[in-house]
Amino acid sequence: MSTRQEFIRNFAIIAHIDHGKSTLADRIMEMTNTISEREAEDQLLDDLSVEKAHGVTVKSRTVRNYFIDERGDEYQYNLIDTPGHVDFNYEVSRSLSATDGVLLLVDATKGVQAQTVANYRLAKEANLVIIPIVNKIDTAAAEVDATIAQLEDLDDAFTPDNIIKISAKSGLHVDTVLTAIRDRIPAPKGDEHADLQALVFDSKFDPYKGIIVQARIVQGTLNSNDQVLFMANQIKSGIKEMGVFAPLMTPIKQLKAGDVGFIVTGIKDPEAVKVGDTITLAKQPVASALPGYQDVEPMVYAGLYPRGSEFKDLKIGIEKLALNDAAFQYEPEQSEALGMGFRGGFLGIFHLQIIRERLKEEFGLDVLTTMPNSTYRVTVKNEDEPIYVENPTQFPDYGQIMLVEEPYMLAKMTMPNEMLNDVMRLAEGRRGELVDLETIGAMLLVTYRMPISEIAYDFFNELKSVSHGFATLSTTFDQYQPSDLVRIDIAIDYAKIDALTFVVHRLKANRMGIEIVDKLKNLIPRKLQAMPVQAIVEGRAIARADVPPLRKAQASGTKVSKKQQQMRRQGVKKSDIELPQAVFDAILEMNSN
């Protein structure tokens, strides 16, 4: 190992949402003189406005800090910030790929919580050094000893001697954290003279500079005048600029094995570079790419349509968002009711909400979001192969269906003994099947097999609620299983609205049909005549309510003729109703109950 690498530490901070991750990052930057008092502001690494609004980190950020220890040695601390919400586990795993160790942060007022354990497992699976830290020890509600006991239960290697107690807000004992990073986290390994291998762990699009990637140099050396090759798509590019975040973009001429930095490519095609790609030199490429990341599979799909803006503007915004959000997938689609738009794939409902807000904040786009759904596998008559349905409007007519299957996940939940009954009641209310129940120390690990659609709709938030934040959740795909699913079509004024179509389990269909038409009658813009709203399943109306007219008809001449009524009933008339977002939100709320 070179002397230079001995003074590099690449690390991340992992924690449950709102346990002080961004605050600790701020203190580390201040105490290493990375930022001046004039530059200091709360949540400095959270540069997206939606991150500050929700108090969560969505995009991981990298920043280089310089720490001078008591011996006068200067260390390079590359801090990679990570998200805390369950929908952004993929961001955590990407960040961890570029690190050699993590700080596991736990709030002393709340103890070990859901994402504490989930992120701990991710770090453990990645074989990273874990430094346990108890935060907020100076608050009145802090239960430091109880929190330390919970950490000891989590891992036998955690002892009162190696658990660091701090207050990130005041800076109390944060200097101990800086010393522990030096002493406990290993320096990176990698031959500076070998062929270049660099891992792309994040990227973003700049309208002037093109694609800017963040990369960890695994081996070799990269110079600012080199031409690089992105191995996934075999795309060559010169380097317009490269450097490090300190925390602002600071150009440098060279990055060596162990370094983490950014590369401005100048590539203007948002599809050209993939997160998890390997960068090598175009003139001397390595034989094989780094393992990279698994493709992220969306859990829910929803339509995104422009409202009050052009389709081409939405297309540009979505392309740029997808570049620095590896889990967001999309393809164009057209709706009779809403026109041209996109079908987006998301990790969960919160992920969908963040994408919607980012489109508004970053691109000024107000988008209309349709009812989210998961992917279904349907076997139809006279077809050898089953079809995969991501859009409810493509769900075959009931007369053609032989078998419907939906994806199931294995949901592993860890919790204290006393919360078992409430959690089991919640899981079984979401069509969960108990697979396994085992004891781990003072905790229980319960495994349920559940449909993705039931987990995606706010299941995690409900789990936090019934367990007071103590239960953990981790999910892995299991298999497709047969389900009795039906398509619910919503017809307004006898014209079916394709954007309001959704798929549910037959047992929920009647209740949801009745509730949804009852809500929609108050949300749909009124017209001069009364308009029926119907929920239709398998050709039969299971619920109906009327949208009242703007005013009562004063003369017989204003009544709808029998011919017009017949045309509407036959579906000849296309609906010209403009649907507000409140209509789609109402259906979304229905499915999360």
From TrEMBL:
Q: Which Gene3D superfamilies match?
A: 3.30.70.240, Elongation factor 4, C-terminal domain, Elongation Factor G (Translational Gtpase), domain 3, P-loop containing nucleotide triphosphate hydrolases, Translation factors
Under which name does UniProt file this protein? Elongation factor 4
Its gene name is lepA
The UniProt transmembrane annotation reads none
Signal sequence: where? none
Give any single GO term for biological process: positive regulation of translation
Which parts of the sequence belong to the Tr-type G domain?
Answer: 6-189
- What PANTHER family has UniProt attached to this entry? TRANSLATION FACTOR GUF1 HOMOLOG, CHLOROPLASTIC, TRANSLATION FACTOR GUF1-RELATED
Q: Which InterPro entries match?
A: EF-4, EFG_III/V, EFG_V-like, EFTu-like_2, LepA_C_sf, LepA_CTD, LepA_IV, P-loop_NTPase
By its UniProt entry, which NCBIfam families does this protein fall under? lepA, small_GTP
Residue segments, region Disordered? 553-572
* GO molecular function annotation: GTP binding; GTPase activity; ribosome binding; translation elongation factor activity
The enzyme's main class, written as a single word, is hydrolase
* Role noted for this protein: Required for accurate and efficient protein synthesis under certain stress conditions. May act as a fidelity factor of the translation reaction, by catalyzing a one-codon backward translocation of tRNAs on improperly translocated ribosomes. Back-translocation proceeds from a post-translocation (POST) complex to a pre-translocation (PRE) complex, thus giving elongation factor G a second chance to translocate the tRNAs correctly. Binds to ribosomes in a GTP-dependent manner.
Substrates-to-products reaction catalysed: GTP + H2O = GDP + phosphate + H(+)
| Keyword set, alphabetical order | Cell membrane, Elongation factor, GTP-binding, Hydrolase, Membrane, Nucleotide-binding, Protein biosynthesis
Which topology term describes how it sits in the membrane?
A: Peripheral membrane protein
Q: Residue spans with biased composition (Basic residues)? A: 560-572
**GO cellular-component term (any):** plasma membrane
